[in-house]
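Marked as duplicate of an earlier ticket. Keeping the data here for the record.
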Amino acid sequence: MANIEGCESPHSYFAYEMAICVFLIGPSGVGKTTFGEEAVKKLEAAAFIDLDEQIKRKDPTAFSTAHLDWGKFWNVAAAYMVEIEEKVAGSVSIKIIDVGAGCLQTDNASAFFKN
């Protein structure tokens, strides 16, 4: 598995393990969730994941204090994205992940999405 925290080419893990992965990135209220939910209705073998909602469930403190420690928030988000792939590997060919804008607050996160 790739070292996502240090961003030593984490995209390679997703590129080889995920058939298609679409990341929806943007501020609250722009329609990421609506788009993702509607896209999944029209695509076979697709899954929509709202990363912020999953982080709220997995680590509520990381979510509620993200603005104080974006690095911790990104680490939780990156770990959850790997967990998602492990759970749905082979069961869906398209993953649409609503990432939100918070995941772009660190250099490691920005590098992950640029690659």
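See parent ticket for discussion. The first strand starts at residue 20 and ends at 24.
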